[in-house]
Write a structure and sequence with these properties.
Strand content of chain B: 15-25%
Radius of gyration of chain A: 13 Å
Largest sheet of chain B: 12 strands, mixed
Structural class of chain B: alpha/beta
Structural class of chain A: alpha+beta
Number of strands of chain B: 14
Oligomer: heterodimer
Helix content of chain A: 40-55%
Number of helices of chain A: 3
Order of helices and strands of chain A: EHEEHEH
Distance between the termini of chain B: 51 Å
Number of helices of chain B: 15
Largest interface: A-B, 26 and 22 residues
Radius of gyration of chain B: 21 Å
Order of helices and strands of chain B: HEHHEHHEHEEHEEHHEHHEHHEHEEEHE
Number of strands of chain A: 4
Shape of chain B: globular
Chain lengths: ~90, ~450
């Protein structure tokens, strides 16, 4: 399955490195990535393929990382976005 | 891949605007549990619910984690118990079996302590109705409903009269908790057989053995969307609401279908109902006020609600071929921060709410009235609601709490999703002679459609 990972929080150095490093450790592959700074806030969305890792494990690992880095990280099933925004 | 803005919009809908799956409701038919023995019937009901519903909570929790959408309630709805217990007569035993099974599998509520008496009732059904106060006051998770009218049958005024007494008795039996038992009982006109929302959920006689129905909510999401168009005309506003309702519906259907698949049952219907909670930013009243009304309940409220309800339905129908249940906007007073405020200020009255129920998706909901309100006045309020439903071919309902020892100006705290109800005033002029007539108000002319 594919998951959409969103990372939102106060901007600082090393956020991308922490998140992609964690995904690499889990064996998840980043297929698409978009990042910007909106009014001092770091906003990143990623499409992650997690065939080799259980979604639950990925989600828990990213929640733990969110606490460590001090940003909000969510992993959600890709299908949710497709059904809501595409006819 | 969807765009970054679309992703962020969904994330915001969930984290800031309270978009949630309000309920996964497993609908179970219980006809195969009927027997002539009270204990045997109750045991079979308990076993069937635990067998088919045992995984409901774990499936709901897993889906919530996977899709990142909160699933607030997991519930079960069953065939009206008036039918299941008619042969054995063990209604209270059945209520206890429902309660025990709900606790065993960890669900929030179980609905279906119900009867369909819209045209007439037999002696067994009357016995069932009289068992309601004991059944709902001696259990925690059991909800009940009684259909007393329909467009096809008219209004069973004998049942309406009886419901006034039953509601008073139930309030008395749960007096120490503000009459909370009445929050678990709904009186219907044109009852819906696949509604997943409590307290009125039951499995209709035309339904199958097992299906998963899903109820989606999100008044906060609609409010946010409307807020972005402060001076748009109504046609534009209707489009904005439709598009928002579309997105919410699609999220609900996805999760509902997944839940049905994992539970190994059919997917039933999706009910998109803007159901408020007492939380700020989760209010139907706030949407109406965002339309340009200073307070909900003032002139213009009925028109605003009519447009909202219709636009929600249109967006839902476009999004899913499985829209059903009640789909629209709920207006429960105690569960909506904006309604509570307006009722306290005396702007929102029962008479205005009655007008609003002719255009919303259900009826007079979670309304607390003085504890000394006569049973005949409660019956007359039910009769008025039934008349609106019967004539307008729509579902109407009454969930009213005559709060013991409370007067206008007081309030009663139910806690959780049920919220806080300000005591609303009712007319003092008696309706007793009207209710005493009994019999049936005939079905309207337009019911003869064959």
């Amino acid at each position: 399955m594919k998951a959409v990972v969103t990372v939102i929080g106060k901007d600082k150095t090393g956020i991308i490195a922490s998140v992609t490093g964690e995904l690499h450790k889990l064996g998840a592959n980043v297929e698409d990535i978009s990042q910007t700074i909106l009014q001092e806030y770091f906003v990143m969305t990623m499409l992650v393929s997690c065939r080799s890792v259980e979604f639950e494990k990925l989600s828990n690992a990213l929640s733990e990382l969110a606490k460590k880095v001090g940003v909000d990280i969510k992993a959600m099933h890709e299908d949710l976005f497709n059904v809501m925004h595409r006819i | 891949m969807v765009s970054k803005n679309e992703i962020l919009q969904t994330v915001q809908m969930i984290s800031e605007q309270h978009l949630d799956i309000r309920t996964l409701t497993l609908s179970l038919g219980l006809f195969d549990c009927i027997s002539t023995d009270k204990k045997k019937t109750a045991d079979m009901v308990y076993d069937k619910i635990c067998r088919l519903g045992g995984n409901l909570v774990s499936v709901g929790e897993a889906l919530s984690r996977e899709y990142g959408v909160p699933i607030v309630n997991k519930r079960i709805a069953v065939t009206p118990i008036a039918m299941i217990g008619a042969s054995s007569g063990g209604y209270i035993e059945l209520a206890k079996a429902l309660d025990k099974s709900a606790k065993e599998i960890g669900i929030d509520f179980i609905g279906g302590y119900s009867a369909l008496v819209q045209k007439d009732f037999c002696e067994k059904e009357k016995q069932f109705l009289l068992s309601i106060p004991e059944a709902l006051s001696s259990t925690n998770k059991v909800c009940g409903s009684v259909a007393v009218a329909s467009t096809r049958a008219g209004i069973n005024m004998d049942a309406v009269a009886l419901m006034g007494d039953i509601i008073k008795d139930l309030a008395k039996k749960t007096a120490k908790d503000g009459g909370i038992g009445c929050a678990k009982l709904v009186v219907f006109c044109n009852a819906v057989e696949d509604n997943p929302f409590m307290a009125g959920a039951f499995t209709g006689v035309g339904e199958g053995d097992a299906a998963l129905n899903v109820g989606v909510s999100g008044p906060g999401v609609v409010e946010k969307a409307v807020k972005a168009y402060p001076s748009a005309d109504f046609a534009t506003l209707a489009e904005v609401i439709k598009k928002t309702a579309f997105k919410i519906t699609r999220a609900g259907e996805l999760i509902g279908r997944q839940a049905a698949k994992r539970l190994g049952v059919k997917f039933g219907i999706l009910d998109l109902s803007l159901a408020p909670t007492p939380l700020e930013g989760d209010s139907v009243a706030s949407i109406l006020e965002e339309f340009g009304l200073e307070r909900v309940g003032t002139h213009g409220t009925t028109a605003a609600l009519a447009m909202l309800n219709d636009a929600v339905k249109k967006g839902g129908i476009m999004a899913s071929g499985s829209c059903g249940g009640l789909s629209g906007a709920f207006i429960p007073v105690s569960e909506d921060a904006g309604m509570i405020r307006s009722a306290k200020e005396g702007i929102l009255t029962i008479d205005k709410l009655e007008a609003m129920t002719s255009v919303c998706s259900v009826g007079l909901d979670m309304i607390a009235v003085p504890g000394d309100t006569p049973a005949s006045t409660i019956s007359a309020i039910i009769a008025d609601e039934c008349a609106i439903g019967m004539i307008n071919n729509k579902t109407t309902a009454v969930r009213i709490i005559p709060a013991p020892n409370k007067e206008v100006g007081d309030e009663v705290e139910f806690g959780g999703l049920l919220g806080t109800a300000p005591i609303m005033s009712v007319h003092k002029s008696s309706s007793e002679k009207f209710i005493k007539r009994g019999g049936r108000i005939p079905a309207p002319c337009h019911s003869y459609k064959n």
